[in-house]
């Protein structure tokens, strides 16, 4: 409060303290004790700023309603000036967590039974983990712990007064607090966090660091929401069961796998069955796996591009691809571009695939004729000697007469080797006279 030391000196002479405080609430630090003991005055002042609670009389600081008012107007910070005994007041604390979950930082999580042994709850039941009582006599049923399920008499008595339970271990309080502010999950126990992540996997992001690193919690979160996978530690992202739970929801999670899981065939197969696109993100050794490659290319021929080089020499895989799109012919091994089966299927599927075929295919008159009968411009990709064949040129021009531009010198009859009468008759039959050069369409 440096800077306010001379607040009273700067005030006009004789100015009442209530006026000073109305002008600047921080003046309460220097005000007469009567103001700091006045409950109504402090209640009103704490509505202006909850930080004024720091200067309230000690007796007033024990008033939980005043504490709550101050907490609501200080982002929960005013709770740090309240007596720790008030932390047991459930109504006060529920009101505080509604303002900010951070008030839970101020609350002790330690608990002791009436024999002063430190105790801890498991699913709401307290155990001290001792083998004997304070008198040194061993417990008749063994250690007091959740494994045996045995509770000593002192631990059994602990919850006779429910307020004895530390708030972070009071499951009933935490459940009510979550209704007020879900960020309180950070202070919840494992059982409550598990319930939360079953409702939505992203809840794990608001659990304590200890529970975020818990395998069981992480697995349940991944089963609900695959996106949380990227928030997990590297150790958990290397857990196959957790990865399996995530990838079954969405194949994109394979990009986030730890290095040791990226080459796992089982996980890769789950991803590829969902979408062929996952195939491109697999490591090289898996892109050489024939069964994975076949699964991918059966879905979409574009997966063929991402196959290992040796698989591009597989005729069956090539046939699957070109059956879907003739454009796949450009991706197959060179010797398959010369294969009549592969190239033939590709060209029948897409006439423009002729340009990717091997020379022996481009000289096959039957294949070329099939292509130009689909689109006359296919003649552009035929072998040079076929561009002069009358049946082929006629078939091409029957589809698109401008395709004669890509035949061998079609407009120069004295040089192209074709019978002049062919050009003349075609011009007459097709009704394109006047569209050819005069040297071709003479006599028409």
What does this structure look like?
- The chain is mainly alpha-helical.
- The chain is built from 24 helices and 2 strands.
- Strands 1-2 form a two-stranded antiparallel ribbon.
- A hairpin with a 2-residue loop joins strand 1 (120-122) and strand 2 (125-127).
- Helix 4 runs parallel beside helix 5 (64-72) and helix 17 (315-324) packs parallel to helix 19.
In summary, what is this structure?
The protein is mainly alpha-helical and 444 residues long. Helix content is 41%, strand content 1%.
- Over all CA atoms, what is the radius of gyration? 42 Å
What is the general shape?
elongated
Oligomer status = single chain
Structural class: mainly alpha
First and last CA, distance: 108 Å
Secondary structure tally, helices: 24
In N-to-C order, the SSE pattern is HHHHHHEEHHHHHHHHHHHHHHHHHH
Low-confidence stretches: 1-6, 409-416, 431-444
Strand content bin: under 5%
Strand order of the largest sheet: 1-2
Instruction: State the total count of DSSP E strands.
Output: 2
SSE topology:
Blueprint: H1 7-10, H2 17-23, H3 33-37, H4 39-48, H5 64-72, H6 90-99, E1 120-122, E2 125-127, H7 153-157, H8 171-180, H9 190-199, H10 209-212, H11 215-224, H12 234-237, H13 240-247, H14 259-262, H15 265-274, H16 290-299, H17 315-324, H18 334-337, H19 340-349, H20 359-362, H21 365-372, H22 390-399, H23 413-416, H24 420-430
Antiparallel strand pairs: 1-2
């Amino acid at each position: 409060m440096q800077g306010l030391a001379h607040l009273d000196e700067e005030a006009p002479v004789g100015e009442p303290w209530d006026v000073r405080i109305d002008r600047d609430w921080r003046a309460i630090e220097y005000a007469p004790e009567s103001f700091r003991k006045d409950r109504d005055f402090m209640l009103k002042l704490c509505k202006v700023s909850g930080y004024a609670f720091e200067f309230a009389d000690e007796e007033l600081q024990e008033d939980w309603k005043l504490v709550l008012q101050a907490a609501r107007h200080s982002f929960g910070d005013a709770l740090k000036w309240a007596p720790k005994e008030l932390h047991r007041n459930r109504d006060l604390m529920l009101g505080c967590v509604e303002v900010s979950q951070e008030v839970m930082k101020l609350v002790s999580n330690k608990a002791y039974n009436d024999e002063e042994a430190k105790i801890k709850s498991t699913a709401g039941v307290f155990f001290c983990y001792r083998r004997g009582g304070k008198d040194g006599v061993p417990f008749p049923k063994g250690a007091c712990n959740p494994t045996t399920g045995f509770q000593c008499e002192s631990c059994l008595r602990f919850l006779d007064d429910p307020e004895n339970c530390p708030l972070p271990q009071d499951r009933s309080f935490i459940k009510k607090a979550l209704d007020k502010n879900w960020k309180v999950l950070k202070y919840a126990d494992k059982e409550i966090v598990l319930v939360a992540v079953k409702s939505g996997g992203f809840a794990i992001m608001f659990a304590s660091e200890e529970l975020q690193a818990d395998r069981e919690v992480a697995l349940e979160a991944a089963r609900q929401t695959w996106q949380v996978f990227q928030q997990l530690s590297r150790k958990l992202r290397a857990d196959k069961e957790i990865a399996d739970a995530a990838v079954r929801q969405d194949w994109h999670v394979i990009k986030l796998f730890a290095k040791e899981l990226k080459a796992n065939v089982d996980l890769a197969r789950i991803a590829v069955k969902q979408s062929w696109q996952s195939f491109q993100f697999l490591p090289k050794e898996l892109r050489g796996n024939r069964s994975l490659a076949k699964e991918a290319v059966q879905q979409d021929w574009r997966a063929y591009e991402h196959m290992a080089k040796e698989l591009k020499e597989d005729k069956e895989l090539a046939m699957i691809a070109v059956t879907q799109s003739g454009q796949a012919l450009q991706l197959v091994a060179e010797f398959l571009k010369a294969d009549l089966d592969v190239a033939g299927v590709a060209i029948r599927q897409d006439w423009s695939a002729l340009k990717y075929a091997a020379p022996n295919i481009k000289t096959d008159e039957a294949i070329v004729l099939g292509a130009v009968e689909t689109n006359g411009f296919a003649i552009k990709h035929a072998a040079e000697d076929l561009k002069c064949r009358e049946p082929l040129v006629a078939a091409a021009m029957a589809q698109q007469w401008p395709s004669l531009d890509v035949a061998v010198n079609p407009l120069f009859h004295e040089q192209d080797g074709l019978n002049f009468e062919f050009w003349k008759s075609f011009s007459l039959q097709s009704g394109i006279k006047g569209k050819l050069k005069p040297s071709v369409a003479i006599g028409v």
